[in-house]
Amino acid sequence: MSTLKTFTMRRRLLATAFIATAFAATPASASWGNWWGKSVEGSGKVVKQERNVQDFRAIQISVPGKVELKQGNHEAVSIETDDNIQAMLEVVVEGNTLKIRSKEKNQYPKTRNLSIVVHFKNLDDFALESSGSVKSDKIIGTDLKLRIGGSGEMDVNELKAETLKVSIGGSGNFSARGVVPQIAGTIGGSGELNMAKLAAKDVRISIGGSGSVQTWVSDNLNVRIGGSGTVNYYGDPQVSKSIGGSGSVNRKGAQP
Known about the structure:
Blueprint: H1 3-25, E1 38-41, E2 46-51, E3 58-61, E4 66-71, E5 76-82, H2 83-88, E6 89-94, E7 97-102, E8 107-110, E9 114-120, E10 125-128, E11 133-140, E12 143-148, E13 153-160, E14 163-168, E15 173-179, E16 182-187, E17 192-207, E18 212-225, E19 230-234, E20 238-243, E21 248-253
Parallel strand pairs: 1-8, 3-7, 3-10, 4-9, 4-11, 10-12, 11-13, 12-14, 13-15, 14-16, 15-17, 16-17, 17-18, 18-19, 18-20, 19-21
Antiparallel strand pairs: 2-5, 5-9, 6-7
């Protein structure tokens, strides 16, 4: 056997041994996420804290949990979770944005006991950057921007605004009911926009992956699909579409 072949075989054997040793040294409870950061297990002792906040018009959630948004005449945040998780969460207002996140960038809470209630007066921008769920009885605004960056879910029972820009960057889900004259929806992955009960006049949809959209529009519907996405619509709008993949645009009826 040549010297080069012998050297190559030795390198492969050493690489295999290194990988096997790494896995053997990894605890069975470790997850792939721990390779990039440290997940902190909840203690099981649940406590509730009120956090003082004021003067914000945007909200950014960067921790996984159950979030409830309540619009009214005051601003406040309450968090109910394990005591050790409570200590690692940071609630700050930067500029006009309320941010709820881990104090340390490489630490992530791992618990089923994380509930966040945010009371707000006005809302222009909301971003969910985790795998949590968000619910709101109502959001009333003017120009509203909603973003779901991962596999999170958001549901709004009553949504009223002049314009809405909603985007999903992963496999998230957004659903809402109400009235918004102008809507722009974007899906970059396999997410879903369920807006069949959200009455609109003009709707623009852009899908870059395998996402799906349901919408209710009266005047104009503009659709661009670059993948295998699907748009189902209600109403009798003028439809313009550009489909670069195997996507489809389908009329489902006059109204949902």
